[in-house]
Amino acid sequence: GGGRPSSPAGPPLYVQNRCDIAADIYKEAGDRRPIILCLSAGTAHVPNLPNPPESPGSVGGPPVYESTASAAYILSRHPEVREEDVQVETTSYDTISNAFYSRVSHGDPSGWKRLLVITSSFHMERSRAIFDWVFGAPSGREGAVGAGYEIRYLPAPDVGLTGEEVASRKAREDKSAVNVRTKLAPKYPALSDVLKFLTTQHDLYSAKGLIARSQVLTDGDVGSSVDESVVKSLAAEILGLAAQEEDILRGMASFPMQEFWQL
Fold it and tell me: What's the rounded Cα separation, in Å, for the pair 56 and 210?
């Protein structure tokens, strides 16, 4: 995920870059056939892409999810990837919920333990902070340990951005990562705490937040009030990214792939 698609199989070019890297890793894995999990229902504050008028989905049901577009892109561009090895997560609208719903809807029920997270380089530090927090959170409270996940991270090239733009975005994301590590993770340490955070403090998952989003704003209102640390964490989520053609080999060159498969 990470951006509104332009067509049902057309995620933004920077997301295509991530998908190409995932598909190449899948093909390199051979018979091990790792699952590719595409994340995200959509992006906060950006309308979802509707289904084409002539499609079955045009008469009702969900729109084109970002994860669906990513899956469609992978399967259409990489025929070596088997359809049954591509899954979609269709609940999340930002990086925190990316991590939470990929764990509770896919990782925990499927018994996954080794994960490789692929995202753009400028977004990596914040993604690492969030996935380490959420996937390291114990399911219970008293004396519990984490779920035993082992996560590796692979940054994809920051395509379509000038050096100045990359530096600006990375600085904002890195600042948000500090907020995650120093504010959110200590305040919401267990998995049940993360759920409480989402359902009480997050504008896209709490009742008060969703109700406020449906109301017509008057007299300078700006929506529901949430935990200050939430505002700081979500600030980097509203960044736009206009991307151009990419070279996926640059993103894979320094990653110790053989070491990963031998874990």
Answer: 28
